[in-house]
Amino acid sequence: MMEIEVRTQRREQLVDVTAQVAGALAASGVAEGIAHIWCPHTTAGITVNEAPDPSVAEDIVEGLGRLVPRDAAWRHAEGNSDAHLKASLVGASASVPVSGL
Q1: What CA–CA distance (Å, rounded) separates 32 from 70?
Q2: What is the pTM of this model?
Q3: Which residues pair with 93 in a beta bridge?
Q4: pLDDT in tens, 51-98
Q5: What DSSP state is assigned to residue 68?
Q6: How far is the CA of 84 from the CAs of 56, 63, 81, in angstroms?
Q7: CA gyration radius for the chain?
Q8: Cα dihedral sign, 59-9-15-71
Q9: Would you call 79 exposed, middle or buried from its count of C-beta atoms within 10 A (0-12, 13-18, 19+)?
Q10: DSSP-based three-state secondary structure for 19
Q11: pLDDT class for 10, splitting at 50, 70, 90?
Q12: Mean pLDDT (the chain, rounded)
């Protein structure tokens, strides 16, 4: 298992980790198989999407904000209930094929 640390600049942000995952795979020597990418944090998630068009990431963040508003009457007192719900909707992992590395 390899770890990748991801830092964000905003409370809600999609971060492209493709290069870090590819680097970890290259360092591991794996050339064929399945990479399982998992995020252990309860207010972050993993998704597969396109990166060349930044409006896609903006749409995802804005869409999740409409589905799960930050200022709803949540019971969880830490102020991040919406993040827990958004992470649950997105999911904590993705399994992606590895071929030809």
Answers
A1: 41
A2: 0.86
A3: 38
A4: 888 899 999 999 999 999 999 999 998 999 999 999 999 999 999 999
A5: S
A6: 22, 15, 5
A7: 15
A8: negative
A9: exposed
A10: helix
A11: very high
A12: 93
Through-space distance between the first and last CA atoms of the chain, rounded to whole angstroms = 18
Interval 20-63: pLDDT, tens: 999 999 999 888 999 999 999 999 999 999 888 889 999 999 99
Is residue 100 a contact partner of residue 31, using CB atoms and an 8 Å limit? yes
Alpha-helical segments (H) within the chain: 18-28, 54-67, 81-90
**Does residue 99 sit in helix, strand or coil?**
strand
- Assess contact for 89 and 61: CB atoms under 8 A: no
* Residue 27 in tokens: 């360092």
Residue reference for tokens 């590895």: 98
C-alpha to C-alpha distance for 101 and 95, rounded to whole angstroms: 16
> What is the pLDDT, as a whole number, of residue 20?
94
The domains located in the chain, with CATH, are 18-99 (2.60.120.460)
